[in-house]
User: Fold this.
Amino acid sequence: MAKTCVLFIKLVVVFLQCYTIACLAINTDEQALLAFKAQINFDPYNILANNWSTATSFCNWIGVSCSRRHGRVTALTLPSMGLNGTMAPELGNLSFLATLDLSNNSFKGYIPHELGNLRRLKLINLVANKLSAEIPEV
Assistant:
């Protein structure tokens, strides 16, 4: 009986540790997206202003896709939205990001070197913006 109780307690501790790690990772994704939103100076259709709210899960935000298994951001797709601003370096924290499409907007400045940390990134489309510098190697 004592061994069963100890095993149960260890199992609960492991579960709580995994749950805490998963929650921190999901919070990291939300914070990265909010940092990106904060760098937007002009949102002519108020898409981010009206839809990107912490009142709803970021996986339900326009332009954001998440994995079913982990609930992590796998795609950020906001082409031709008339967005103006700079690209937040926090986008480099979206460790599950596979697709980044911010084409046909008015992003300016440098492409954050932090994007080079995104090992799962397969597609990046930043054409028709006012960006300088090269796309960092992944």
In short: The radius of gyration is 18 Å.
